[in-house]
Amino acid sequence: MTSRIVFVEMMGLPGSYDASVYDHFDDKDQEGLWFVKNYAHVSGITIETCNVCAGATLPQACEVDGLVLAGTYNSVHDHTDWQQKVRAWLPVMRAARIPILGICGSHQLIAHCAGAEVERLDDGPFAGTFPLRLTDAGKASPLMQAIADDDCFHYANSEHVPEVPAGATLLASSSRVPVAALDYGDHCYTTQFHPEASEETLGTIWRHKAPELRRNYNSHDKGDQLVENFLRLVRDLQTS
Predict the structure, then answer these.
(1) Domain ranges of the chain
(2) Residue 198: left (phi > 0), alpha (psi -120 to 50), or beta?
(3) SS3 86
(4) 172 φ, ψ to 5°?
(5) Separation of alpha carbons 139 and 124, rounded Å
(6) What's the number of CA atoms in the CB half-sphere (13 Å) around residue 19?
(7) Buried (b) or exposed (e) across 200-238, using 16+ Cβ within 10 A?
(8) Which residues touch 94 (CB under 8 Å, ≥6 apart)?
(9) What digits encode the pLDDT tens for the residues 28-81?
């Protein structure tokens, strides 16, 4: 049995971010294609993409075994049309107990839907490759298998979730982001960091607006481990 994963692209509305920083990549700013290339090797899954910002229809629960919800340049406070569609769609996916990995802006959007605040970070963006600290729940979580305290992940954040939302469990924190990873139950996880990104794809965000921040990134991260943990969890749920 093959598990169907849908990667939902949420980079942002055209014109709301500087897409030219990605022009040197073969796939430009099509992050869904990056994700497929990086993780299609995981056995027992297929990966499809859906760019909700470009008007694509979000998948129905009967069409998917797992979801990866990407990051975005749009703040939860923008209340764009595509964000409203996602807000209406998420409870349906949660009710169907579809496993979800929400990344960065999706971490914030899911927390905001749960009633949590999303606030600007003091002292500017939190950008670079930084260590995290696992809670006891994080150390026991299948999402964090083979990940230890002080393992590093890539961040590119101007906003964050300052407190754990009601009904969620804290899995990990980092220096300026106390709520770095959450478990909402039924295999719904979110991370403020970008486990799917590389030093190159995330660092390039600052190419024009803050080039000095690019020096904060390195390749010593455990992002691939976390993403593969999630993909294999989805696959194993289908075969158990």
Answers:
(1) 3-239
(2) beta
(3) helix
(4) -160, 155
(5) 30
(6) 11
(7) ebbbbbbbeeeeebbebbeeebbbebbbbbbbbbbbeee
(8) 100, 184, 186, 188
(9) 999 999 999 999 999 999 999 999 999 999 999 999 999 999 999 999 999 999
Name the residue among 103, 99, 109, 114 with its Cα closest to residue 188: 99
- Rounded to an integer, what distance in angstroms lies between the CA atom of residue 119 and that of residue 108? 10
Going by C-alpha positions, the residue among 17, 35, 59 that lies closest to residue 209 is 17
CA distance 114 to 98: 17
Q: Which two tokens stand for residue 156?
A: 């590119």
155 pLDDT higher than 90: yes
Could you tell me the CA-to-CA distances from 16 to 11, 20, 181 in Å, in that order? 9, 12, 26
Q: Which two tokens mark 62?
A: 């009967």
d(CA 170, CA 164): 7
Indicate the angle between helix axes 223-239 and 31-39, nearest 10 degrees. Answer: 70
Rg (alpha carbons) of the chain, rounded to whole number:
16
Q: Which CATH class is domain 3-239?
A: alpha beta
- Which secondary-structure segment (H or E) carries 48? strand 45-51
Amino acid at 207: R
Record the tokens describing residue 197, joined without a space.
């990104």
